[in-house]
Amino acid sequence: xxxxxxxxxxLFVTALAVTVxxxxxxxxxxxASGVSVSGExxxxxxxxxxxxxxxxxxxLPGAAVAVTLDGETVHTGGYGADGGGEPLRxxxxxxxxxxxxxxxxxxxxxxxxxGDVELDRPVYxxxxxxGIADPRGAxxxxxxxxxxxxxxxxxxxSPVDRPRRxxxxxxxxxxxxxxxxxxxxxxxxxxxxxxxHVAARLVEVVGGRPFTEYMEEHVFAPAGMDDTSSPxxxxxxxxxxxxxxxxxxxxxxxxxxxxxxxxxxxxVVSTAEDMARWVILQGDGGRAPDGTELVSAESVELMHTPxxxxxRYGLGWxxxxxxxxxxxxxVWHGGMVSTYSSYQxxxxxxxxxxxxxxxxxxxxxxxxxxxxxxxLIALTEGREPPVGDSVLWKxxxxxxxxxxxxxxxxxxxxxxxxxxxxxxxxxxxxxxxxTFLPYLVPxxxxxxxxxxxxxxxxxxxxxWLQRFYGVPAELTFLAVAxxxxxxxxxxxxxxxxxxxxxx
Length: 503
Description:
By secondary structure, the chain is an alpha+beta fold. The protein has helices at residues 6-24, 44-58, 100-113, 142-146, 169-174, 194-207, 211-220, 272-283, 297-304, 367-380, 392-415, 417-422, 429-434, 441-447, 449-456, 464-470, 472-502; strands spanning 62-69, 72-80, 94-95, 244-248, 251-255, 269-270, 318-320, 330-336, 341-347, 352-358. The strands form 3 sheets. The chain has a 6-stranded antiparallel sheet with strand order 2-1-10-9-8-7, sandwiched between helices. Strand 9 and strand 10 form a beta hairpin. Helix 1 (6-24) runs antiparallel to helix 11, helix 2 runs antiparallel to helix 10 (367-380) and helix 14 (441-447) runs antiparallel to helix 17. InterPro entries: AmpC-like, Beta-lactam-related, Beta-lactam/transpept-like.
């Protein structure tokens, strides 16, 4: 009878993980097709019922949503619980992650309208301290920063590899002096958070005040976003929201957000109620709900219009249409950190705006979080919302079972090492050593996991803690399988040495 080692099983599961990972990490799932459910405008009660049922069915820890229509908020609601176990509400502070970029872009556009900044002038004209190792960096324009087409990328400058966490935007920009470019400015689109660190520093220098103060005085306060704040660069913190969650093995585990510098690119804390005011402003040509104009309608349209080489990214916003699976053209942006995620969507053809904030972060798939947004959009467009349960807990359960199996098989291999060695006592050393080679595959897979995840994530770098938060069951399996194989190798090697000495 042919027996299979724990490594053989590990290889099979690793291949299975790759099969699951690659299609699951698409930026936004396609919209579900459906038929009209009503000829009347959707009611707030219907939106509320769908959101409440969705959060419970998908096993999400919590979500806060807002829906607007033609300059009015038609529904806000909170569902589930925060990290402290308290009911989540529409006014619960939550991290909005990369939705912050649209706010930084608006601040830059205010300076453009004031004549202090030109989008197509080099950043260096405004920030003489901005310099990178690649001489082409001197040609990077303000527009290219906001459109993520500066040529900078995580491969040329990894935020993970900073010598220390910056305590100011000035320091964050100065740390980029050794950065390279992955492409000439304006030629390729690469999503890179430091683009917006530089943009925030530009706001700080040209605006003549700290970035956090500028945002409060010129963006949040006039927009009526009284419960919204940007992180303090000195500490990297904001008025601390409740802990978000890591989803693992069917559980929602409260966890602290790993420390990282995010000023300008992420880190803003807001509420669903405040974000409703934000999308109203975006849908009403730059005017806040009370009529205050923060920027002109022309500037808003410019931010919403794709100008990057990928044909979809504008200035802090993206576009998607029916060719991408949307029911109608959408202006949107998503955000995701380790313990929180978020979406903001405008549908110009219907006048609706949508916000969804979640206190759970990156996972194998965005299906569970984006499905709530897609369901709300579908209801307003007369389509049936998506149905179905989360597959995340099923994948985690499978990896949990395989982790236990790897542990059992590893223990079995260690306990039987003496008998294994005695049966091979007379064989040449090279033949005995060659039997260990398959057992080196899981350790190698663990060592290569970060690079593999970076590849799947489109080149985005991350720390091991951030990776673990995103795929805890998968990395736990790889770690246990690797340790089990190494333990078997060590036990069998020791047994072989003892057997040969005895002989």
